TrEMBL record:
Domain FAD-binding PCMH-type stretches: 35-203
Protein name: FAD-binding oxidoreductase
GO molecular function, one term: FAD binding
Chain residue ranges for the region called Disordered: 291-310
Keywords noted in UniProt: FAD, Flavoprotein, Oxidoreductase
Pfam annotation, one family: FAD_binding_4
Length: 437
């Protein structure tokens, strides 16, 4: 065992787990159990000062650290790395008058929404309430409300960080414009973020839910989806999903989230009424705390395979591929409407997302054969969609084997690498998808 790793126990107050310790295997495991995450040690930091102590020790001893509250977005690129678990950094303060929130690196979106919702406010949350705010935001943060307000990173006003020297600091656009830019969507390669401050947005009314149809109505549902998105205001986000439940019949879901009321939603979503008889319809007025009920994402870790690509449009040939081709063995093949504010200029590493749609594919790699089948099916899907597929995809949807360079423009990649070399020349920090790889 490396003496520098063993000495972590003398440097921090939080629990340190080393290979061979009881609980080490579980502590190092990422959310996606299909990803192997080899690490040299796991440190459950007690607070921000403890995190700084861990970074100072890593710098002095020539170690590399990566930070995860619960392991979402892991790539497996962690051999020899010290994994910092930040769940204990659970500060949460909502200021309704100022419409702002301050949250620690261990806070999930579900907690933020529960605090902000009663004040008619929302954060830039995604579909899964268990995802950490900080990790999600460092990756840009693709929210249900992105069409209205851009990336979650665009709402950030300040970061509390530990830098590569192990010093704590506060980063704003005024205090450190380069680092502030990089942290807003460029990943965790530049500093350890212990807390983030961001603007909340008005949500006096929120309407959302899922309409579920038999798989036989996929083509009609897709045409309705195209009609809805063609004229959708920025306040409306919709997803079209073809589902293949294990052992069940194919299904089609249309998920909606509207920053508005029921009457407006019914008018905007009128094309869905012409699809046919729905199996279920959960659409209703929601509180921001109920945002996760739209898709009911899994709440427990499990193995998964995912890939994402952005699309330049949904013309007839694309519709035929997405609505009619057999997508098995994928569990779901999903089209998300993006655009709106996401397509406008953004002074962040995430930048503008010009493509108006995004395709997300997910499956269960329960055996090597199934994993190979999922990879092959995704490759054929991108091939069938042809030139409509953009090479760019959001950082937060990158998958193992992909690169940070896939998420940014060439100019942004070059600037991120400059910031990395300037702020962390010894490579103390390693993101899930490092910008220098």
């Amino acid at each position: 065992m490396n003496a520098a790793v063993e000495n972590l126990r003398t440097q921090v107050r939080g629990r340190v787990l080393l290979p061979g310790d009881n609980g080490f295997a579980e502590a190092r495991a990422p959310w996606n159990r299909a990803v192997e995450q080899p690490v040299a040690a796991v440190v459950e930091v007690a607070d921000a000062d403890d995190a700084a102590a861990a970074v100072r020790h890593a710098r002095a001893a020539g170690l590399t650290v990566t930070a995860q509250p619960n392991g979402h977005g892991a790539s497996g690129n962690t051999a020899g790395v010290v994994l910092l678990r930040t769940a204990a950094l659970d500060e949460l303060a909502v200021d309704p008058a100022a419409r702002t929130a301050r949250v620690g690196a261990g806070v999930s979106w579900g907690r933020v929404q529960a605090e902000a919702g009663p004040h008619g406010l929302t954060g830039m949350a995604g579909s899964a309430p268990g995802v950490s705010v900080v990790g999600y935001t460092l990756g840009g943060g693709l929210s249900w409300f992105g069409r209205s307000h851009g990336w979650a990173a665009d709402s950030v006003t300040a970061f509390e960080v530990v830098d590569a020297e192990g010093e704590r600091g506060r980063v704003t656009a005024a205090s450190d414009p380069d680092l502030f830019w990089a942290l807003r969507g460029g990943g965790g390669d530049f500093a350890l973020v212990t807390a983030v401050e961001f603007d909340l947005h008005p949500a006096p009314e929120l309407y959302g839910g899922r309409v579920l149809f038999p798989g036989a109505l996929a083509a009609r549902a897709f045409e309705a989806y195209r009609a809805v998105t063609a004229g959708a205001p920025e306040s409306l986000t919709t997803w079209f999903t073809r589902l293949h439940p294990p052992g069940g019949d194919p299904l089609v879901a249309v998920d909606v989230a509207l920053l508005g009321g029921e009457a407006e939603a019914k008018e905007l979503l009128r094309p869905l009424e012409e699809v046919g008889t729905a199996i279920a319809d959960t659409r209703r007025l929601l509180s921001p705390a109920e945002l996760g009920s739209i898709t009911s994402d899994p709440t427990d870790p499990s193995p998964g395979f995912s890939r994402a690509r952005t699309l330049t449009g949904l013309d007839g040939p694309a519709a035929a591929v997405l609505a009619e081709e057999d997508t098995a063995p994928l569990l779901l093949a999903q089209v998300r409407h993006v655009g709106g504010a996401l397509a406008r200029p953004s002074d962040s590493a995430a930048g503008a997302l010009a493509e108006p749609y995004l395709v997300y594919a997910f499956g269960l790699p329960l055996s090597p054969e199934l994993a190979a089948g999922l990879r092959e099916r995704c490759a054929r899907l991108w091939e069938s969609l042809g030139e409509r597929v953009s090479p760019r995809r959001p950082y937060s949807l990158l998958a193992p084997g992909e690169s940070a360079a896939d998420a940014f423009t060439p100019e942004a990649v070059a600037r991120l690498r400059e910031v990395k070399r300037a702020r962390d020349p010894r490579g103390v920090f390693r993101a899930n998808f490092p910008v220098l790889d």
